[in-house]
Amino acid sequence: MARKAACLPKGTRISDYVTLGVLTATVPGELIDAVLSDTGKQSRRYRQLPARLVVYYVMALVLFAQASYGEVLRCLLEGVRWLHLKGESTALASKSAITKARIRLGIAPMRELFERVARPLAEPGLPGAWYRGRRLVSLDGTTILVPDEPELERRFGRPSSSRGPGAFPQARLLALMESGTHAIFAAAIGRYDTSEVALAPPLLERLRPGMLCLADRGFVGFELWQAARAPDADLLWRVKSNQKFPCDKRLPDGSFLSCAQARACGRRAGHRVPPERCPRRRTAVPPDHLPARSGKRTGRGIGRAVP
Question: For residue 270, what pLDDT is reported?
């Protein structure tokens, strides 16, 4: 069924211009030009939609996700003229021109721009962003709907249930974000049927000393724990309530030190591997009687000792 194109409220809204102004201040045009040059996507001749403008347009599509593509372009071009930047009349940009401009741009400049711009934003002392001098970051995932197109369905897959296939294909997104500001500084996108654990290793490389990484129980495993500790970040990950950690040393606060080992050390070629030959990682396990916020014991925390 055809639907009416979603439009932004009529008339000039200063809030839209301010939003675009913040966008251009956060991602200056000089940086975009450098990225376009490094990826070989800079405009070689003057177009109705030059490459720099298309980059801003793709970012604006996220800011105004509820509006149609044409309406977002109209708002962007009005804002560009208001900010005294180059821009053409919206009447010059047809739907086919928008499509061709996005195809010319491709994904490489947007990926490179994200790598250069995305970073934690919290200043020292910002409430909710720090714990005892450590920057709080979180590793978590979700699924996002993508347009119902055959190519996207082949690329990302479609969920199904006992009642049939889902309405839209879905992609799986895993992000490493700053807990206090929700600023995403590392992300990975895969097929709907890809596990979050499989997407995690490249993101863990973005951890840095002085960060305290929080993660849910699904990520706990020796290999990911080793990868997350490699950048010398601190970890505080939940574990399943049925996971067992032997107590090596009891600490005064009720927590204890334990060692986790690689899953492959259980058996190799049908023979038991001697414990002394297994790679191990020392960790601190908080008391298992700490309740969840709901009052039910749904899991426990596990992490390096935080002073």
Answer: 43
Task: Let me know how long the chain is.
Answer: 307
Three-state DSSP class for residue 126: coil
Q: Are 217 and 269 in contact (CB under 8 A)?
A: no
**For residue 188, what are the β-bridge partners?**
174
Q: Measuring CA to CA, which residue among 186, 178, 179 is closest to residue 202?
A: 186
The pLDDT, as a whole number, for residue 87 is 45
Q: Confidence band (pLDDT; 50, 70, 90) for 304?
A: very low
Cα torsion 152, 204, 299, 236: sign:
negative
Please, which residues have CB within 8 angstroms of residue 301's CB and are 6 or more apart in sequence?
A: 236, 237, 238, 239, 285, 286, 290
Average pLDDT of the chain? Answer: 78
Predicted confidence at residue 119, as pLDDT, reads 92
Q: What is the pLDDT of residues 23-63, one digit of tens each?
A: 777 888 899 999 999 999 887 766 678 888 899 889 888 88
Amino acid at 223: E
Listed by start position, the domains of the chain span 14-117, 130-303
The structure tokens listed for 216 are 């849910």
CA distances from 167 to 108, 145, 159, 181 (A): 29, 9, 8, 33
Task: Give bridge partners of residue 212 from the DSSP assignment.
Answer: 136, 234
Residue 131 CA to residue 38 CA, distance in Å, equals 38
Q: Determine what percent of the chain is predicted with pLDDT higher than 90.
A: 35
Distance CA 257, CA 255 (A): 7
State how beta strands 184-191 and 256-261 pair: unpaired
179-182 contacts at long range (C-beta below 8 A, 24 or more positions apart) = 179/128, 179/129, 179/136, 179/137, 179/138, 179/214, 180/122, 180/126, 180/127, 180/128, 180/129, 180/130, 180/136, 181/120, 181/121, 181/122, 181/126, 181/129
Q: What is the 3-state secondary structure (H, E, C) of 268-297?
A: ECCECCCHHHCCEEEEEECCCCCCCCCCCC
